[in-house]
Specification:
heterodimer; A: mainly beta; seven-stranded mixed sheet; four-stranded antiparallel sheet; 11 strands; 52% strand; B: mainly beta; six-stranded mixed sheet; five-stranded antiparallel sheet; 57% strand
């Protein structure tokens, strides 16, 4: 069973630009969550999608947005990039069923550097 | 507001000894607690979990203890092996909160051969 795939793995942008990151979940998984990892801050929850609907949202500004497609693939977008957006962006999938106990399956992440 | 806290950013342990990683939380609405392990250049992987109605869960060399009154959990690794060297994240799931899992800031464990 293929794991969670994130593209691109690495990218460099300049301030003010925008970026789109992509995530393909494990086949059959309907929930996709996004996290931002920065040194000293751990994994900060961005948002979670299920069946093309955003169900949960973290405490990030509106420059961070996402969407999910009918095949469960997800994208996140960051507009008007700032230096502080430099981070590892992790996508995680899960089955999405009631009774799920918290196990997430992560991709390897997209490393974004903003210059 | 960091609802899951790991106050030790790093820990060094000799091979064969016990590693104890600690985690504190503030939200009483968490119903499952999990530990994830992360190697450099890889995504986190699930290690072990515990329900809020239990106080201990064991899986091989890994044991998680939960003290609800103190809002504290710990991960014990016995015996520690060099391959255990990684960053360990404590995480918690909201009860009824769909698929939202909150993570701590991580503890970097180094097991010295």
């Amino acid at each position: 069973k293929a794991g969670v795939t994130q593209t691109p793995r690495y990218l460099i942008k300049t301030r003010g630009q925008q970026v789109t990151l992509s995530c393909s979940p494990i086949s059959g998984h309907r929930s996709v969550s996004w996290y931002q990892q920065t040194p000293g801050q751990g994994l900060q929850f961005l948002f979670e999608y299920f069946s093309e609907t955003q169900r949960n949202k973290g405490n990030f500004p509106g420059r961070f947005s996402g969407r999910q497609f009918s095949n469960s693939r997800s994208e996140m977008n960051v507009s008007t990039l700032e230096l502080g957006d430099s981070a590892l962006y992790l996508c995680a999938s899960s089955p999405g069923y009631t009774g799920w106990t918290g196990e997430l399956f992560f991709g390897e992440g997209s490393r974004l550097t903003v210059l | 507001d960091q609802q899951v806290k790991q106050n030790s950013p790093s820990l060094s342990v000799q091979e064969g000894r016990i590693s104890i990683l600690n985690c504190d939380y503030t939200n009483s609405m968490f119903d499952y607690f999990l530990w994830y392990k992360k190697y450099p250049a890889e995504g986190p992987t699930f290690l072990i979990s515990i329900s809020s109605i239990k106080d201990k869960n064991e899986d091989g060399r890994f044991t998680v203890f939960l003290n609800k009154s103190a809002k504290h959990l710990s991960l014990h690794i016995v015996p520690s092996q060099p391959g255990d060297s990684a960053v360990y994240f404590c995480a918690a799931r909201y009860s009824g909160g769909y698929q939202k899992v909150t993570f701590g800031t991580g503890t970097k464990l180094q097991v010295i051969p």
